Amino acid sequence: xxxxxxxxxxxxxxxxxxxxxxxxxxxxxxxxxxxxxxxxxxxxxxxxxxxxxxxxxxxxxxxxxxxxxxxxxxxxxxxxxxxxxxxxxxxxxxxxxxxxxxxxxxxxxxxxxxxxxxxxxxxxxxxxxxxxxxxxxxxxxxxxxxxxxxxxxxxxxxxxxxxxxxxxxxxxxxxxxxxxxxxxxxxxxxxxxxxxxxxxxxxxxxxxxxxxxxxxxxxxxxxxxxxxxxxxxxxxxxxxxxxxxxxxxxxxxxxxxxxxxxxxxxxxxxxxxxxxxxxxxxxxxxxxxxxxxxxxxxxxxxxxxxxxxxxxxxxxxxxxxxxxxxxxxxxxxxxxxxxxxxxxxxxxxxxxxxxxxxxxxxxxxxxxxxxxxxxxxxxxxxxxxxxxxxxxxxxxxx
Length: 398
Fold this sequence. Notes:
Elements: E1 32-33, E2 52-54, E3 58-68, E4 73-79, E5 88-95, E6 107-113, E7 118-126, E8 130-137, E9 153-158, E10 166-168, E11 171-174, E12 178-182, E13 190-195, E14 202-206, E15 217-221, E16 229-230, E17 236-244, E18 250-257, E19 271-274, E20 277-280, E21 287-293, E22 301-308, E23 311-312, E24 322-323, E25 330-336, E26 342-346, E27 349-354, E28 363-372, E29 382-393
Antiparallel strand pairs: 1-8, 2-7, 3-6, 3-8, 4-5, 4-7, 9-29, 10-11, 11-12, 12-15, 13-14, 14-29, 15-28, 16-28, 17-25, 17-29, 18-21, 18-28, 19-20, 21-22, 22-23, 22-24, 25-26, 26-27
């Protein structure tokens, strides 16, 4: 459920930063804050988030989820007077008795700082049972693409017009860059196939039947160490335009990972989302992206997720950001800043943001996968990939 309390306001893009040494490079400066407590949750009266100070015209977005009772009261607060005064007042109730919201509600709130520079934070005034998970961000509500013309960034875009196929160790490599594979235990699956008959240029990944929960057909770069972005250097952009052939009994995902798609008995999906719980899968350290899974409690939800040094983001709680429809293209994309904070977009619109979703030391590159959602499934879903985009700061020295 999403609640819009003010009109969306477009945020003026900040001037481009210069690439000087290892100074972080950013086309869009933003912050994401959460509870200052060690567990990153709100579960006691008096707990607060880090404050965000923003100029006039800035849109703030808050994302709330978790398993909690209505006795938990979480607020958006604004600092009275000038930033640094230390006096705060509550301006918007996000959870709890009196707000009209149910327990465990997932909501998105928008607040526009209309004029002057002001500071905002999250504050819990009363606690019940459970934990409220909340993020507050000033990231732009519309995806920023200024990096595409900024020479401080390495820009990669593949529209899949090239029909050359190279086979390497049982997998399929495209142009020496892409690597695709399907787990050995599945039947009916097909590693990536380029479709030169499609006018837009596409690539198909076909999931196999009988796949276990951690097995899929996947696609990644052939060299995930060198063809990758070091997060601490500056903004990293990623995205893909994809369409899934069927929803029920299906898993698919688009994002970044430090994992390579290899042929074997356990060709990986990156995450398992079932019954509101996010569980990272397979042997990687950092990853993030969008994931759709036809599981019992949410058949068609598209969910952003992350994994920082093997710790699932958002307190391992799912947050539905969109709804998948079969045979429909979606642009799933995002940006990571040098602090490891992430913003997620669907079709150009902001749907979620998260604090420190990956480690600043992470080295990430694109990873895409599709499969059946349970062992023994007869579903053989096809994920059609129209294009993939990936951009990150250009190194200062050779």
